[in-house]
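Just wondering, does anyone understand these tokens?
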Amino acid sequence: MRDQACTRDDLLRRALEGPFPERDALLMVGRFSPLRPLERIRLLVTAPQPEQLLGLDHYQVEQIIGRPLRRTAWNPRQLLADTELDRRWLSLDERWVLWFGDDRYPSHLREIYDPPALLYGWGQLREAGRRGVALVGTRQPDQEGEKAAFATGYDLARHGVVCVSGLARGIDAAAHRGTTGAGGTALAVLGSGIDAVYPASNRPLGADILDQGGAILSEYPPGVPPQRHQFPARNRIVVGLSAGVVVFQAPEPSGALISAEFGLQLGVDVMVHAAGASWTGCLRLLQAGASLVEGARDILDLIAPGVLGEEAVPAGELLSPGAAAEQTKLALFDSPGEIPSREVHR
């Protein structure tokens, strides 16, 4: 087996410089769930056409990715048939899928160790290219934490900052509500298939994000149900899209701490909001050198000017909602998705 760590940079360079995979090839590899992100890139760099993928057997795929696949057999013809769901989903407006080497792929997301090979999106693609601020925390905040997350999302949006979170219960949802309440732009990264906002109670909020000109993103294709291991993986994308991470209230252990750790590894600003300074996870972050902040002004003072991609608007000026966004998107969230999924707890 080859040493994957030693060849990562060369692999990503080949992905950027090599031929663009055909769309059916992208969707086929996106459907093969056992693959890790860098393995998907390796397979698509090696076989960028669906005919090439159809010609590979299980042993050849193992040779390409450099490890055995014992649990799931490589069945390219079934994968190609399964992409019918993807093509149906992508046929509607404001839906897209990006390959790692696509010029429209967020350049800052490429900086994480294992960037998504494919990024499925719903909404305004241009907003995914702007670096934002991640607002994260527990699914069970107290009233002070929820209020602080809402206010921070609101104030950052008033300053023209994209707010990034995971559309989970608690802090994530409060921050997104604040952002949309100010007419600002939110990016929500799902830990499930791109067509299934989880939890279902946040579907109206997802619709608001789209109607305000934001976007919903996932590395998982339509119909993939939420599973526990997918949420920590989602957090690396939240951080990869951001110039700073603000943790509001985080117990230990928690997904918010995973996000903070990704931030420290990536070299982005990691901050703790004063509303959660006494929480065990936040205390550990402060002891490790995270900055304590009380609101949007403190956050913007810490992040280097220009990193957020656009000049901030004056604090007194509200952003206008996304241009002529149709209010019909909420109905699209009312269905449970095209493949039934079960609720999970994380």
